[in-house]
């Protein structure tokens, strides 16, 4: 009722009228038709009135002042602006109402917060007043106690309280401290990061991985991952034992980002069997409580000095029979207790193989990880025995790694270090393969021989590629040939090469490689050369990392749609992609040529597997020793570790008896240039020297040469020349006598025929007359004098000119006669 009273008058009348009227839906059909008729009439009348009103207005209105278009547009603009302002006023009014509501809301909220905060402030003031009272009591107590102390040590304790306090000034005032000791500011020490990095990258500290996916990238620098050989704590102990000067925090902070601790999914599959078996036994003894020290301490307890050769090789009288003392306590097991430990062992394995209709049993060897068991006393005896055998292995590993680092860090201008190793053969891949190709045996294996060459001030990585899967010494030297050429081109003054590699008996450490090593050292006119072998099971080097990066490049190219079917495809891709590593292609013919150099009378070296370094200064003669040494000033040719002498080729005397030259190594003659005229004072007839085709030489009398070459008289000292026997000077292709002044003379060592030694002084028997002779340098093929560069056949030693050998070849040439004969 109240709502109805508040309505406007027109609304009340409308409701009243509507209440009296009857809706058309409530009428009968006759009433509805009548009502509609009335509506039509009213509508007709209303329309007529509107039309009449409109006509009257048009007739009576006469435009006095017509509005122009410009005024009309101004008027329309004014109307639009009015409409906009009205709308804006309406919006602002609504916004003002909302803000007023918000204001009232926050005003009420502020009032409530004030009431709440007042309660909290009152409670906090109560707590603060209690704390102030407590602090005042504590302050007065400390002040009285400090004033009552008389000893200097007690006052130091209070000063420490001040130094450790956050409010030093306030605490100093409270206690009454005067003249607080002010420490000097420590100077910031510059950290030599390279020292720590080089230690982490040592091969005896971390091992490099060879997998193509085992990389890590930081700041756009991709590096091959290395895994630590021991825990970080043990590694730090090794760093300090070696003279490290930084703390553990700095040592860990500056660890290279690609040196990681090994994980299970990155486990090493190339572990040393000797280390693994001894670690298994050591772990079992620690579980039983019989041993509480680590492997390093255990090794130190059975040797006077772990870095001394005689102690680690069992030659020291003080420690050769020394045994390890084990722990005995109540918690440890008794010696009769049963224990078990793991062990790697090679076992016989037999399997059946079908050949046609027959079935054969084939015996082979398999390496298995087995569990051994026995008493604790048996394990102690085995561990003591294995530990003594392990000393030699451990020393070889440490010595080879340390000498490897020493050889690289102390290189001279005329020396290089060459590290090489065969990488795992790369399996040829296609961008898309059918099933038979992918799972079948249709893919080629590409041989990769990788390594690094170190000069004094630079280094160069390399990779040689071959289609042949041969890894024997002829293949090794076919792979090394382009690398040695590279060394000669980069530094022609190099006359000493130190080789480093692992020591498999089927590849590097065998008699054929020893012969080729001595042979090429002589052909290259090196002063001397050395070859060092890493200890078995510890041959990982930088070459493995290079192999992994090379395979990664090849795989990436295959993913991008390239096909690699043979060594030539791999060489072309690597030559294009690798910017730092030098790549060379080794043809099969180069390996075949190297095979022809090997004689049939190569003499094996007894105890080859114990040798870790060989040296050579003369062809067919090598020195060998147990471990490597590069001490100054000889750098590989010293007498440390008792080097022995071996002749790689067995010789026979005139009676057919074999002679093994194993007593002394002849000193090489001073290097002389071929084709250089030399003064000769010797008669061929008096010394009974055999020369074929004597008509080619007009005169070799000393007087003639002395007259022809007076300027060379007395310029050569022949006291250093060596004794040789059975010397024949072959000039079988000469056609015409040659005048003396036209002869190119090279130095030849000639000894007179040995005379009877019956009744002579034994001291005079070893003395020999040492002289020089000459012969003409003629090409064996075109019969002309050799001018410029020459080639020497590695088999028959004959000389050929550059034109007949199809290019400049210094030492890797085989003539057609030797090739056809083989």
Automatic annotation (TrEMBL):
Entries under PANTHER family matching the protein: UBIQUITIN-LIKE PROTEASE FAMILY PROFILE DOMAIN-CONTAINING PROTEIN, ULP_PROTEASE DOMAIN-CONTAINING PROTEIN
InterPro entries: Znf_FYVE_PHD
The organism of origin for this protein: Spodoptera frugiperda (Fall armyworm)
Protein name per Swiss-Prot or TrEMBL: Uncharacterized protein LOC118263172 isoform X2
Region: Disordered, residue numbers: 1-68, 655-674
Coiled-coil region list: 89-116
Superkingdom of origin organism: Eukaryota
This protein's UniProt keywords: Coiled coil
Composition bias type Basic and acidic residues, residue spans: 33-45, 55-64, 655-664
